[in-house]
Write a structure and sequence with these properties.
- By secondary structure, this protein is mainly α.
- It has one domain (8-110): Helix Hairpins (Orthogonal Bundle).
- Helices cover 92% and strands 0% of the residues.
Length: 147
């Protein structure tokens, strides 16, 4: 007799939900990395523009040129502030995705353990039936040999 778990579809569903949660976490991590990369790019550009501004001031550039660079640096500062907010939001999404994945892993583990317990119980009952059949065969043989 073969083991059949009545709730196998639920076990499969929980496994699929866990896989989906893993995919969502992976996607959230990629998004976070993209946001962090973009932030670093803004910071690098700002540093270069600040250095250029300093160089222009030292070389006695026109006020218009200095003001142009300064305005661009201020714009970059605003972009950095906005990108920091995006990074924080992406971090929140990653943490939520991690929590969601943890919940799905626990949920799947509960159902897998339930299946394992049912299988162990089935195996135990099968072993008892087989042992009872062997005992009955041995008893019949003993009775036949005793005659």
């Amino acid at each position: 007799m073969r083991f059949h778990y009545a709730f196998q579809n639920i076990v499969n569903l929980k496994g699929n939900e866990k896989a989906q949660a893993e995919w969502l976490l992976s996607s959230a991590i990629v998004k976070l990395q993209e946001e962090e990369k973009s932030l670093h790019e803004y910071e690098d550009i700002r540093m270069k523009m600040t250095d250029q501004l300093q160089l222009e001031v030292e070389n006695a550039a026109s006020v218009a040129k200095i003001r142009e660079i300064q305005t661009y640096v201020e714009h970059l500062d605003q972009c950095i502030i906005n990108k920091l907010l995006d990074v924080r939001k992406a971090n929140v999404v990653v943490r939520k995705s991690q929590s969601h994945l943890t919940d799905k892993m626990v949920d799947e583990k509960v159902w897998v353990k339930s299946r394992e317990k049912a299988k162990d119980q089935f195996q135990h009952e099968t072993n008892l039936r087989e042992q009872n059949e062997l005992d009955e065969i041995a008893t019949v043989r003993f009775a036949m040999n005793a005659r």
